[in-house]
Amino acid sequence: TLSGLSGAGFDREYIRMTGVQDHMAAVKAFEDGQRTVSDRDLRAYIDKTLPVLRQHLQHAQDIAGRMAG
After folding, report:
1. 50-69: b or e for each residue (b if 16 or more CB lie within 10 Å)?
2. Residue 6 and residue 67: Cα distance in Å, rounded?
3. Count of CB atoms within 10 A of residue 20's CB?
4. Going by C-beta distance under 8 Å and a sequence separation of 6 or more, which residues neighbour residue 45?
5. Which among 4, 23, 27 has a CA at the least distance from the CA of 15?
6. How do residues 9-23 score in pLDDT, each as one tens digit?
7. Are 39 and 33 in contact (CB under 8 A)?
8. Percent of the residues in the chain that have a pLDDT greater than 90, as a whole number
């Protein structure tokens, strides 16, 4: 999808795809992990990292909103 784009069109699609969609997928995976992971070390990592991922998602959504106009 990105190979046919350039300039502002590329920027918009890139942030939509990698900034928003990928962060949404990561947040969902970590939320799923919170419910299913029993390993204490992995659970601690998830608990520590999930707020950061949510913040990154919010930033990506903010950027996407500004780019949309």
Report:
1. beebeeebeebbebeeeeee
2. 15
3. 17
4. none
5. 23
6. 888 888 888 888 999
7. no
8. 61
